[in-house]
Amino acid sequence: MEDSLPLHVCHVNKLSIFIHRSHTLVHSMALAFLVCYRASFLFQDHKIGPTPMLLWLLVFASELLLSFIWLLGQAFRWRPVTRTVFPDRLPEDDKLPAIDVFICTTDPDKEPTVVVMNTVLSAMALDYPPEKLHVYLSDDGGSPLTLHGMREAWRFAWYWLPFCRRYGIETRCPDFYFSALADDIGFGSSEFMTERQKTKERYEMMKDSITEARERCGQGHSRSSTARDHPSVVEVIQDESNDTVPETKMPLLVYVSREKRPSHPHHFKAGALNVLQRVSSMISNSPYILVLDCDVYCNDPTSARKAMCFHLDSKISNSLAFVQFPQRFHNISKNDIYDSQLRSIYSVLWEGVDGLKGPILSGSGFYIKRVSLYGSTVDEDMDLEELKRSYGSSNEVIKSVRQIYKPNVINDQRSLQKVTQLLAASCSYETDTKWGKEVGFLYDSVSEDYLTGFRLHCKGWISVFCNPSRPQFLGNGTTNLNDYLIQGTRWSTGAIDVSFSKFCPLIYGPPRISILETMCYGELAFSPLINCLPLWCFATIPQLCLLNGIPLYPKVSNSFFVVYVFIFLSALSKHLYEVLLTGGSFQTMENEQRAWMIKSITCYMYGSLDAIMKRMGMREASFMPTNKVEDDEQVKLYRVGKFDFQTSNMFLLPMVALIILNMAALVGGLLRVIFVGDWDRMFVQVFISCYILYINLPIIEGMMIRKDKGRIQPSVTQLSVIICIFFLLLGSIIISIVR
Ligand SMILES: O=c1ccn([C@@H]2O[C@H](COP(=O)(O)OP(=O)(O)O[C@H]3O[C@H](CO)[C@@H](O)[C@H](O)[C@H]3O)[C@@H](O)[C@H]2O)c(=O)[nH]1
Ligand SMILES: [Mn+2]
Question: How confident is the model over 374-431, as pLDDT tens digits?
């Protein structure tokens, strides 16, 4: 009777639904009171001149914007679900569908070859029939180092894969297994111990060979011109020198470096994934694809089978596009100061959308159905010319699209290389086709994942979120402020790219997806811009007004004061509730509030500006890959929970200047209140500065107390003081003239 048992079950969490919805209701009533208070104020006769009135309106607009984005975010809390899978109930191995694994790398300096090869090895060692597993690595750097690494990895896999299978090793990323951090080192028989030792030595040999090659080539590869200008190379990795048959069958391993020319836009990761899609369609053409970033290794070999529990469920498989696993990171410290783990996204939001149409595509760690990327339905007797207009001129590509799922193995290496290199991986193949517009991963945003997932959902596809307690994939989180802010800026650019395109979720969404799904996509798309404007206002206007004796909020004795207190406490306690429920602490909440403030002031602003300038044709699209090399000193600072302020002034100046402004406002404001005695009118403004300073104590510490390398340089502080004085003088002069 095993056939009738479900492969997975979905639990709807009634209690948390009740708590979320009640909170949404109560909190929105409080917000409605706030709007009433502000609106009624407009119709009364007040003696605040035109400029203070303008400032007052800005504060009101900020309150409205934040309320709006909060409201959109409530859709994520509407119907959270969790899922359990039963891989034991899957059909026999010979009935499982084939899988292609796509791994992307681009820069051997920022993405060390050893790290990339560990990802490759962990994917090859997935617990799946090896003849149904094909691993493709895209190397956008076109680096001989990476190709050399692939050959070394292949040689090591001969020993690594049988070792993992025979002893049931769970951690199949060799580096983590041998670093003794893994929990399944095992202390078995002496035979096991000798095998382990031998395998470890072979792993060290692989590493040494890669390091030596690196030393021979020297640093600076990514800056060399070949990274941006090179022909295509497609190579099925084989070991000619070795004519013994390996103990277990090995998955296919293919190295792909697409052609890149400065004259052709290459569309970053999305472009690389589309090339892989075409090349793989000529070789294995598997119905399912697992996409991984080069640093995201498979931490659990059973993820493929878990994903198949959904893809092979006939009740949903027809409409299911992808199974998304959360992005988790192996280098997160207990006190994660930058919120690098993205707790809210992967522990709260994605479970929330999973109860609607499914999670948003998250770049890495998802099993996607190949046909969902075709853009539209294709059948065998479609017009050839029409197909060529969509998929390009290659007959081989068209054949694979038509013969959905049928592997298309071109047996002889030479003709394979010719076809793939000349066509599928060439930089001009996509010209005048629908690649990147309708077909494959889409190019209109640097957050290709978000945009591609959105289009899939709009076309009626669904997705599911699979979040088992053991992380299935582990990547490298950003553990220093500089990388964190650069990444945050790119994500903001990507989000704003979409909001200002014809795919703006709030407009493109409603006829195609439900209002709740629209709200989720809208929240993500607009949150950079909508958080940035109010947070800049709240960090400057109440402070300027406090110093000039202009009240912006109700008096403590006014009954509307209670509304403000309520909104503040209600927002904080809801945040705390979500943090505690997902394993965080009080400190986690403070870290997230600080991260939110810092990002709104910097990343969100620069990202929005970048996207707007791109739209106006003043800038070109760019994708700065995140650094994956760990710097010992920076890691040390992160581990002890200290900010590392070694980043550009572009990021530091706004942060530091606003902190100084708030310090000035607090001191000046307190003195005023003491001498003038109007604490009743000014209380809220004094409190705002207090709160900002309290949350951002680490910045104050970096400015005034720390002496180490990661502190804020005095020159930055001095420059910020000047900016701040200038702002206060200018503001006060304008206020006093117009008053
Ligand atoms: O021109 C490029 C640029 C990047 N990449 C690869 O893309 C992946 C992601 O880049 P990374 O620098 O790690 O960016 P992150 O910000 O860490 O990545 C997140 O955000 C990206 C979108 O901004 C998504 O594509 C990723 O999947 C998601 O993990 C890496 O494997 C890169 O090698 C390329 O292949 N070609
Ligand atoms: Mn990454």
Answer: 988 777 777 888 888 889 888 888 888 887 667 765 566 777 777 777 777 888 899 9
Residue for token pair 């404001």:
669
Q: How many CB atoms are located within 10 Å of the residue 106 CB?
A: 22
In which element (H, E) is residue 136 found? strand 133-139
Say whether 94 is catalytic.
no
Q: Is 357 annotated as a binding residue?
A: no
Beta strands 473-475 and 328-329, pairing class = parallel
Q: Which atom number of ligand 1 is nearest to the Cα of residue 296? A: 31
Write the pLDDT tens digit of every residue in 125-162: 999 999 999 999 999 999 999 999 999 999 999 999 99
Nearest CA to ligand 1 atom 32: 105
Q: Which two tokens stand for residue 405?
A: 């799922």
Mutational pocket test of ligand 1: of 106, 139, 264, 360, the residue with most ligand atoms within 8 Å of the beta carbon? 106
Are the CB atoms for 59 and 541 separated by under 8 Å?
Answer: yes
d(CA 599, CA 340): 12
CA distances from 681 to 544, 545, 671 (A): 15, 12, 14
CA of 115 to the centre of ligand 2 (A): 12
Q: Give the burial string for 516-549 (b: 16+ CB within 10 Å, else e).
A: bbbbbbbbbbbbbbbbbbbbbbbbbbbbbbbbbe
Whose structure tokens read 């406490």? 569
Q: Any idea of the CA torsion for 122, 126, 132, 137, to the nearest 10 degrees?
A: -20
Known binder of ligand: residue 94?
Answer: no
Residue 255 CA, ligand 2 centroid: distance in Å: 20
Q: Clarify whether 140 is annotated catalytic.
A: yes
Task: Name the CATH superfamily for 87-182+192-216+225-470.
Answer: Spore Coat Polysaccharide Biosynthesis Protein SpsA; Chain A (3.90.550.10)
What are 82's two structure tokens? 């969790």
Q: How far is CA 11 from CA 2, 17, 84, 315, 322, in A?
A: 21, 12, 8, 17, 19
Tell me how far the alpha carbon of residue 295 lies from the centroid of ligand 2, in angstroms. 7
Q: Which atom, in ligand 1's list, is nearest to the CA of 103?
A: 31
pTM above 0.90, yes or no: yes
